[in-house]
Every structure is written in structure tokens, then in C-alpha cells.
Amino acid sequence: MTNPTDPRTAPASGPRVAPVSGPRGRARVLGRTIAGLALALLVTATGSSCSTADDSTVGGQGDPVDRHGQDYAPGTLRVLASSELADMEPVLEEARKATGITVRPTYAGTLDAVGRIASGEADKSFDAVWLSSNDYLRLRPDTAGKITGETPVMVSPVALGVRPAAVARLGWDPAKVTWSQLHKAVADGKLTYGMTDPKRSNSGFSALVSVASGLSGAQSALTQQDVTAATPRLKEFFAGQKLTSGSSGWLATAYARRTDVDALVNYESVLLSAPGKLTVIRPSDGVVTADYPLTLLTSARPEAKDAAGRLTAYLRTPAAQRRITETTLRRPVVAGVEPAAALARDQRRELPFPGSRAVADGLLDAYDNTLRRPSRTVYVLDTSGSMSGERLDRLKAALAELTGDFRDREEVTLMPFGSTVKQGEVRTHTVDPASPEAALDAIRSDAHGLTASGGTAIYSSVREAYGFLGRTPADTFTSVVLMTDGENTDGDPAAAFDTFYRSLPAEQRRTPVFPILFGDSDRDELGHLADLTGGKLFDATHGSLDGAFEEIRGYQ
Hints:
Rossmann fold; alpha/beta
């Protein structure tokens, strides 16, 4: 039986009318609104930051496109797409051969893309958007009117990928595990996991909603009362989160390095593609599902709308649906097409989303400031002589801006260095939930007082950061952020740091370094430091320094 509102059985003739409920979004910490965060992340998504999104031409020829979008050209469809859709490249090449339509995607995080649409910037550069979900778009009044229709192309539920040894240890039948069983295993200290940041990743937010809905027992749209009732169990569940990340790719890589993390929470398709064999568990009492709707912008030209219609018609043919499920391990949306062999056939009910934007905001704020583990971060800041003037001013401004994103209970250490760490200027502040502004004001004051002098002792300074963090408590996320504008000139060489790092106890080696390329810093030097420690390199040489710091927040 066909249900026109179910993306798995929706008819293929024309776009699906968007319903008006079911948000996927995020909230600024410390009481800021979702709109404020979308505006801040608009800077990241439009190229004035270190965004690592890969913009390219798929299904055609030409150089990589500029992150700001492209001019319209006949026979093309300019698409603002979720970054995980890069795996659709072979399917889109086949679509080009069949339809003559070249898709020109600009990749961005799903939730970051919402800011571009809300601001109207997407109207200038794109004809369509292709996100993992449109629920948040439909909720916001500043975006709902900017889309005219949507056609689901494939689906993938949020699930848990668990090491087979952990499944055996827990005695689980993967087809019958419930959210309550997962909660009990975590609360008993028998299961740990990694998850992306709900404020920056739709898979993270969908996972957050899945857990809240599953543990609250909500049968309809999630309410604030449901969230409040489930909060004690949610707090126990998130105590088991050992890894956080701004992207699914880095999360999988970090997970592969860790022997103390049992599972990942992400889309089923991502889990099945992750390194190493995972047992994928879709909780039997329900899931939240991404339906990847190709969606027209109201500003699109008539010829672009026609191109989108032909493209979606092709993508929903049985042959294309089979190619999609085999290539991406997402599930088909056209009746009669079997999922890839790796995908289980049994059905799951769809868990309810928050019933209002206020509930979504409250859930995200609770996650950031109450439910998740607090963070401990050392910011190792190059204040050598080469940073004097405009570069130091940019650093001060970036740190001042960053204070708006620090969470309750977070410990922040500023560790400036030149030829050595400037010990007299090292300051640590913890954001007290009762009076957060006290710590934030102090951090801004410390940042304003930074001065430039001396050489550049990168490795010695990072080594001191590890010494400062010491044997980190098990209930915190720890990281080191390194910002430098030059190559190492003083203190330990790279080889000495490598030896030091490898001599650390296993729990200390789990603290990653996130270097920021800035000024004249050496990409190879900093890339090696990130790779060695399990971190990630961020590039601010072609964008804003504050954007780089902001993007790292998803990994802390």
C-alpha cells in the first residue's frame, strides 16, 4: 500500500509537499538562539573561514568550483548539498549520461547549509538544495518560504554500530535491542560510544532526538515535558560518550584508533562503510531517518526547475535506485526495489521529532550544558614576534568571538608561547553555570592582554600542554588547539616531540591536537602533528581565524 507521506513509498511523479512539523536544528550555548548560531556558521559555510567542505563538479568537466557558488549555465543544476553526498558522484555521472544534466555541488554540513538558505545567500548561487533532511528548513519561517517542493531520493536511519565482541559480551540479539537496553548497558559501564556534535551535524542531532524520544517513551511529537522526564536517563546515557566530532569521517577515523570505545552512533550507511566490521543495531522501538530530499529553491530559473525534475525522475527509476543502494548503502525509496544485501529488511517505526523549535532549542542547550561530558581544552597560542600587528589583532578578535560558544562546565586554558611558553600569561578558567559571564569576561581580558615577542617553539609548547592536562579525568573531553603563524624555530624538534608523545600512557595519547594553519605556518609540519595525535588540521590561510576556531568546536 502506498502512503504519500512516507518517503519510502511516496509516488515519484513530482515533488512531495512539505509538512509543517518535525525540526532538525541546533541552539547556541549559554542562551543564544538557533538563529544566532546559523548566522555565525554562515561565515564558515560561505568561505570566510577554514571550512573543509569539498566543492567540485560532478557528472561533467571543469575546474573545482568556488566555495561561494557558481554562475548559472544551461544544462547544469547548482546544488547546495550535505557533505556526505559526495559518495553519490558515480551515480550522478551516470545521471549526466542518461539525462544530459550536470550536477555542480557545493558541499557543506547539513545544519550549516540552513544558514545560507535563511540568509538568502543560497538564492544567488544555487538552484536546489540536497540535505539529509528538510525538517528544520520547514520549521523556520525564514527558510520555509524559500523551498517549493522536495523529492526524497533515498533513506538511512540513525543506528549504532557496535564492535561484535561487545555485542557478544552483552548477549544481545541485534534485531531486538531497544533504547532502554542501550541505556542500561551504558549506565552500567558496559558500553561506550562516539557521536557527532548535534549542533553541527544532522546525524548528531538526529541521534540526540532518537535517544530522547526512545528513552522518554514519547508516542507523538516530542515535548519539553518528555525531555524533562527523560533527563536523568539521558544524562546517564551521554556519560558513555567517549568521542565527539564535527564530522562523521573524522569520527570513524578516531574510533579506529581507540580500543576503549565500543560503538558509533551515526547513519546506518556510514556505519556499514566504517573501517572494521561493526554490528549495526537499529533499536527495535524506533529510529530517526534521513530521507535526502532533492529540493528546489523558489528562486530557481524555470530551466533549472525542469532540469531538477528530469534528474529526480531518473534518480527514482528502479535502475538508479538499485545503483544508489549498492553504491551508498542507503535504502531505496521506490517500492519494489530491494535494499542492498548488507541492509536488514525488517522495518522500524519512525520516532517523533520535537513538536516545536523551542523544544529543539531546549534539547540542544541541555545536551551542551548539562547532559554531555564537559570539555577541557588548552589553546596553545603563537605570540612570537612575527605575530605582532594585524595578526595578533586577528587572534585577539577570534578569541573574543569564541567566548560566545563556550559551554557550561567547560575548562579553558590559554597558553601563549614564543621561544618558550610564557608561563606568567598562562590562565585557566572554568565556565560556572551559575555565573558564566565571569569566566567569559576573564578569557576576553586575557586575550586582549596578549603581546608578541620571541621565536616559535611549537613542539615544546604542545608538550607542555600535555603536561598541563596530565592524566585526564575519564568524564571529560580533552583536546589541544594549536595556532601558529610560522615554522618551529626554538625548543624541541619534531622528532623529539614524536618520541615524547609515543611514551605517554594510553589515556593521555587519546588527547588530540587540532592545529590551525595561519600566516606562514608549515602545512606538512602541522599535518604530521594532527595525524600523530589523532587530531585534524584546520586551514585559516584562505579564510578567517575566528571561523577556524569555531569549526574546531565540533570536535571538543
